[in-house]
Amino acid sequence: MNEKVRKGDTRRARGNRTGFTTGACSAAAARAATCGLLSGEVPSSVVCRLPNGSEASFAVLDGRVEGAGLERVAHAVIVKDAGDDPDATHGAHLTADVRWLPQRAGEIALQGGAGVGIVTREGLGLAVDGPAINPVPQRNIRDNVRAVAGDHLAVDGLEVTISVPGGEAMAKKTLNARLGIVNGISILGTTGIVRPYSTAAFRASVVQAVDVAAKQGQTSVVFTTGGRSEKFAMRQLPTLEEACFVQMGDFVKAAFATAIKRRIREVYVGAMVGKLTKMCQGLAVTHAWRAEIDRDILADAARSVGAPGALVEEILAAETARFAAEKLSRLGLTVPFHRELASKAIRRLKGQYPGDYRLAALVCDFEGHLICRVDQHEAL
Fold first, then answer.
1. Which terminus of the chain is more exposed, N or C, with fewer CB under 10 A?
2. How many CA atoms lie within 13 A of 130 on its CB side?
3. Closest Cα to residue 225, out of 250, 245, 200?
4. Overall fold of domain 19-194
């Protein structure tokens, strides 16, 4: 057997510097602004308590206080540092403006300003028409403001407005619009810390998207691995509502576990050969850094549809699943090869994620054209 050809170690070295969530940065900005409101001067740095109970120091930018007495308004900015896991909001200016609410003792009213998304659909755990500031960040912001304000809240309350300059443009790089969040980003984070390459925000958005579909009464979801496969799936299933389509990316386990929990009746998977093979492998997360393509699966599928032995050996030594797909295409074996992989994937997924749902695989080529559809009853 030929030695497998590799471009390099897929588990290549990555940075491990942690960063902070939008929620933690918002809480730090709110705490700094509250300090300024009380003292008349916003500090150049602030120590903020995170949702996980730890504390972190943040540099404060553009600190200023305007007005006097109960008309005073304090302003503070924290620049988000996502560490070695930069995302669409890396470098965002999380901004807090804090003012008094006279005679509203103990109240801390939280508002969303420009660049913070507005919730337009149920199913997110947030009030419709309210700001897209998730529950944990909401509590964390209020806790930090309360820690500073203390006895000052005995008579008057405080209004905290969180804004993100440029947030509307950042949101276009996220799944917010699909979830029903418009005009800005979401303020997120359950611990306050961003772990390098954890992609926790993306995983959370997958879970959230399935929750939204279920809340709307949808009984079908379509999991795709990216934008191209999603557009392809939408063309194949034109009668389904947009909310049914969920870009699960690499998060197979999160997607299926949530669909089962929400009692979704029909699950479709739209994918190309590479991710389809990863599903055959039973990977909970299909990112390239987690595991290589299993060439044995590709070779077995090729062998079962009549590929010559020499080609099977080439597939075993190749670097990518695409190599196998292109070679088999030249032999006119595209459809049977992909049907074989899709059937293997369905069997593996149903075995790993048992439940009372019907599963179908929609397979496309690299241009987003249909190769085949395989339904559960054909594969099992």
1. N
2. 14
3. 250
4. CbiD-like (3.30.2110)
